[in-house]
């Protein structure tokens, strides 16, 4: 039987880090594992329980290291494998798990497999990739980076053939229908699991189960739809508690392909809720987010949504209608240069929200209130800005701002040697940095730390079933999450029956997306019986309301309540 700690990712707060822009310990201008290790206490204090490391492998680094040249190493600019293991160990000491990016849809064109494949048609690596003598007629469709790439097929002179690439031309797609490639992936996963990682963020997950120019009959025989089940089962044999987190911007009816009946991937980024959340923030209307939450299927008990605001890519609004995307552009990306790939916004959260503290709190609070596990991006906790003079998505990947000192305390190197320039101006280190915010009790950093603490005490949100509830004010998102107990520390799993120490508990959160104050009425049936406690608010609203009457909300205000029933005086599990 599973115990309380086994589905750890349901209680997690995940934090995404680029090692090269987090902290440079050796002064060469590039962040490294030693620098990251020195900041584990910072992450611990913030309330982070799991770090997601973006690719750190040896790489020509033409796509933020998503162009991998060696799956078994650490880019020497970031340190050594020994430094990586030191980091893992220190993180574990502070109770922080580590997930790493697994980029196996493609390799770098500099990877020895591709070099061997292109050099010799008879090479055993030839069939690791997807080749054609002529590009298919639809080669100009389906590029992930339209405007930068013009085709998904490129001609390789050395190979004398065309190869398939979903992403950039220097990222040839692996042929996952080839059993030898699957075997390589198994070995890569096994290697890092052996070193102690707690799982993988699965890059470009939808493309791992598509056909890639292989004939339908061949594909069917190789059963691509079983691939995630294969990965999951391998993972479970090697390390029972490891998890897979899929990067998949999919529609609600495709979710099952990823989570199966609980036998495929455990975590799925909630891109669908994410883009509707931004539409709601842009329009001040709750409906888009509420309807999106309603459209998502219930997940199997062991699976989980991973909710986020911004990530290291553009804010992808590709699932919205043209009009709705237009409304987001008007609100968050008025200049054409702030948009990217015809579908997204290439800005950080704080500039998108006009550096407005009330809206930054509102957005974070709302994200933390969504059923699932929260994922934060480094720098958003202090409200870092971006540098739109950098190309494509590079502008949201600038160095972390630790102090108001030279290079924001990121590195002692001369500024021209930094991996990327520091942000300057309104969002530069003089105005936005960790050290100042640590000292200021009212800072965004301290607010988020407190909010995460509250969130960690709400197993109802991470473990329970959540649903939007109807309220009579169009700008208010109301969500109710129900779980068996209010005690995070003794959370029973949905699989094993471990008696809860108290009765069922619910958390109701209210978020007002409008700049005007309002008063909402909840239906008595949505509140039900139980004692009401207020957990988190944007301001002092006085005594906690009964919730069965009127509830006031300030401009961009938010309030979290718990409704607990049962006898909390009883002790211990198993009664
Ligand atoms: C994923 C990553 C993105 C990268 C792409 C190609 O979408 O999030 O940053 O460019 O994969 O690997």
From TrEMBL:
UniProt-listed GO biological process terms: carbohydrate metabolic process
Keywords: Carbohydrate metabolism, Glycosidase, Hydrolase, Plasmid
Enzyme class: hydrolase
SMART domains in the record: Aamy (SM00642)
Residue ranges annotated for the Glycosyl hydrolase family 13 catalytic domain, each copy included: 16-417
EC number(s) given by UniProt: 3.2.1.1
SUPFAM superfamilies the record matches: (Trans)glycosidases (SSF51445)
GO molecular function: alpha-amylase activity; cation binding
CDD domains in UniProt: AmyAc_TreS
Similarity remark: Belongs to the glycosyl hydrolase 13 family.
PANTHER family: ALPHA-AMYLASE FAMILY MEMBER, MALTOSE ALPHA-D-GLUCOSYLTRANSFERASE
This protein's name: Alpha-amylase
Organism encoding this protein: Gemmatirosa kalamazoonensis
């Amino acid at each position: 039987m599973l115990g309380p700690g086994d589905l750890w990712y349901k209680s997690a707060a995940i934090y995404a880090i680029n090692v090269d822009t987090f902290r440079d310990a050796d002064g060469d201008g590039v962040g490294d594992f030693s620098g990251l290790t020195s900041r584990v206490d910072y992450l611990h204090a913030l309330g982070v329980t799991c770090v997601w490391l973006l690719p750190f492998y040896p790489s020509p680094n033409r796509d933020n290291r998503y162009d991998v040249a060696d799956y078994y190493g650490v880019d020497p600019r970031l340190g050594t494998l020994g430094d990586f293991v030191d980091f893992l160990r220190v993180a574990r000491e502070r109770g922080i798990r580590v997930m790493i990016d697994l980029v196996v849809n493609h390799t770098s064109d500099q990877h020895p497999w591709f070099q061997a494949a292109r050099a010799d048609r008879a090479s055993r690596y030839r069939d690791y990739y997807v080749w054609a003598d002529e590009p298919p007629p639809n080669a100009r469709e389906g590029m992930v980076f339209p405007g930068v790439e013009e085709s998904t097929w490129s001609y390789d002179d050395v190979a004398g053939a065309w190869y398939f690439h979903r992403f950039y031309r220097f990222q040839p797609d692996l042929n996952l229908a080839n059993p030898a490639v699957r075997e390589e992936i198994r070995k890569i996963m096994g290697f890092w699991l052996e070193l102690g990682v707690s799982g993988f963020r699965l890059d470009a997950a939808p493309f791992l189960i598509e056909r890639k120019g292989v004939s339908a009959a061949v594909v069917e025989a190789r059963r691509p739809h079983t691939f995630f089940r294969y990965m999951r089962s391998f993972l479970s044999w090697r390390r029972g508690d490891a998890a897979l987190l899929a990067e998949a911007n999919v529609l609600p009816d495709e979710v099952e392909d990823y989570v199966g009946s609980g036998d495929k991937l455990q975590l799925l980024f909630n891109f669908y809720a994410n883009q509707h959340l931004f539409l709601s923030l842009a329009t001040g209307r709750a409906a888009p987010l509420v309807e999106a939450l309603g459209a998502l299927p219930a997940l199997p008990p062991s699976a989980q949504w991973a909710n986020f605001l911004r990530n290291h890519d553009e804010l992808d609004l590709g699932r919205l209608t043209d009009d709705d995307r237009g409304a987001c552009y008007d609100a968050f990306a008025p200049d054409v240069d702030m948009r990217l790939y015809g579908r997204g916004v290439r800005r950080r959260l704080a500039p998108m929200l006009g550096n407005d503290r009330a809206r930054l709190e509102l957005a974070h609070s709302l994200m933390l209130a969504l059923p699932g596990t929260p994922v934060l991006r480094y720098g958003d906790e202090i409200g870092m800005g971006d540098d739109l003079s950098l190309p494509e998505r590079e502008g949201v990947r600038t160095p972390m701002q630790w102090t108001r000192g030279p290079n924001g305390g990121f590195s002692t190197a001369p500024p021209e040697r930094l991996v990327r320039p520091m942000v300057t101006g309104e969002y530069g280190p003089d105005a936005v940095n960790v050290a100042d915010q640590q000292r200021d009790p009212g800072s965004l950093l301290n607010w988020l730390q407190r909010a995460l603490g509250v969130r960690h005490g709400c197993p109802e949100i991470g473990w329970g079933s959540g649903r939007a509830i109807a309220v009579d004010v169009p700008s208010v998102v109301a969500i109710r999450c129900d779980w068996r107990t209010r005690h995070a520390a003794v959370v029973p799993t949905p699989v094993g029956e471990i008696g809860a120490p108290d009765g069922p508990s619910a958390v109701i959160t209210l978020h007002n997306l409008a700049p005007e104050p309002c008063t909402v009425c909840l239906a008595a049936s949505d509140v039900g019986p139980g004692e009401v406690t207020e957990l988190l608010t944007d301001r002092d609203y006085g005594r906690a309301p009964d919730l069965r009457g009127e509830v006031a909300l300030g401009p961009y205000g938010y309030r979290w309540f718990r409704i607990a029933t049962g006898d909390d005086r009883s002790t211990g599990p198993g009664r």
